Amino acid sequence: MTYVKSHLEDFIENLYTKIAITSPDQLDIELISRRLNIEVGYSYKKSKCAEIGGIMMIILNETLPKTEQWQEFGHEVCHLLRHSGNQTELPFPFVQLQEWQANTFALHFCVPTFMLPNLNLPDTEYAAARVISEVFNVEYDFALERLRRWIIQKAIIQYS
Q1: Whole-model pTM above 0.85?
Q2: 137 in a domain, yes or no?
């Protein structure tokens, strides 16, 4: 059975292909932000993003470990590329929806599906998550969640 990617997986693969990102060693905040024309800065405050006058900006919390900065970068990229408007002006359920979407986007952006089959993953879930964590520079729990979602999607396709 052939793996059929979701719309989100296709979007991220097309985005990365368009900016010539094809392997985990290229998943770098500075490289990707430069190629997507996103200004990135660092502050001790909570990570956030904005688009002002056509300029996309992300401010990352400088006190976070690099793994968390990478994950938050993915989250904020979603807001810039897939959402519009100001969350402070939205009803709370819409804010919740956008946050859920950005969290899901970050999982796929930081650990792209099209890069996963190239890994030689161990048989156990926890060992495989450890490899994903190291290769994609994400936290272990983030890697485990991403792996579990990938396994579920492969299972759904296999049994449908």
Answers
A1: yes
A2: yes
